[in-house]
Amino acid sequence: MPELPEVETTVRILRPKVLGMNLLALQALDPALAPVAKLLPLPQPVQGLTRRGKYILFQLSEKLLVVHLRMSGRLAWHEKEPIPDHTRLILAFPHGAVLFIDPRRLGTVEVQDGFSEELGPDALGDLSFLEEALKESRAPIKVWLLDQRNIAGLGNIYAAEALFLAGIDPRRRASSLSPQEVSKLKAAIHQVLHEALAAMGTTLFDKTYRTPVGEAGDYEPRVYGREGLPCKVCGTPIERIELGGRGTYFCPHCQK
Ligand SMILES: [Zn+2]
User: Fold this and answer.
1) Is residue 215 within 8 Å of 207, Cβ to Cβ?
2) Could you read off the pLDDT of 111-148 as tens digits, one per residue?
3) Which of 24, 111, 119, 122 is the 20 to 30 A CA-CA neighbour of 232?
4) Active-site residue numbers?
5) C-alpha of residue 224 to centroid of ligand 1, in Å
């Protein structure tokens, strides 16, 4: 569930807390992550904390620690309170700790020498590549947007939100979009991501996402999760369909 805005918010809040600090130890509470703790020689100072797509990268002096939150993972800054349930890994610093909390245990933590994931351009960056890239794909536009090799950072919520704002039916072939529609889509992607960043992300009914200091995200989806509720623009009930194996929400009147 965490997408670009949630991951970027996590990095922005944690960066000043860990930058330049010595990572003293990794403690795996989940045995599945024990190999990670063994692979990393410690202590090492944190030289950078950055985001690539939906990945979180702790740049250490010798290695890269790469975290992907997947469905239900989050990173939390921890000082004194008891360790919360579902904590899988503790990154210990002299003045506190970063906790990897992950109830569904689908998130990943890896030690790498260099970042090796195959990712498309970042969704927050220059999107002028979309004009050419979309012409080459017969995939439904929503499915195309979710493929991280095409564009990095969008997930099920913000892809649906951007297509609604752009007035584009999620089932349309990517190659069928007119130049005007591509322009609208580029603006819509940036608009929803900036709105969501300002709101510090989206916390849904399942309440799993929190910022590292425990706040909920305030972004209110226009269509995502609103099946049967009236469209905020035209009042038509929002529909939910399956597309590429994912639940997809859209307004059948506003999106052509
Ligand atoms: Zn509508």
Assistant:
1) no
2) 999 998 999 999 999 999 999 999 999 999 999 999 99
3) 122
4) 2-3, 54, 246
5) 13
Using the mean position of ligand 1's atoms as its centre, give its distance from the Cα of residue 255 in Å. 7
Phi, psi of 7 (to 5 degrees): -70, -45
Q: Considering only the top CATH level, what class is 4-112? A: alpha beta
**C-alpha 223 – ligand 1 centre gap (Å):** 9
User: Which 8-state DSSP code applies to residue 108?
Assistant: E
- 201 Rama class: left (phi>0) / alpha (psi -120 to 50) / beta: left
Q: Please indicate, yes or no, whether the overall pTM of this predicted structure exceeds 0.90.
A: yes
Distances (CA, A) of 237 to 24, 161, 184, 227, 246: 53, 15, 23, 7, 19
Q: Which CATH number fits domain 130-250: 1.50.10.20, 3.90.420.10, 3.40.50.261, 1.10.8.50?
A: 1.10.8.50
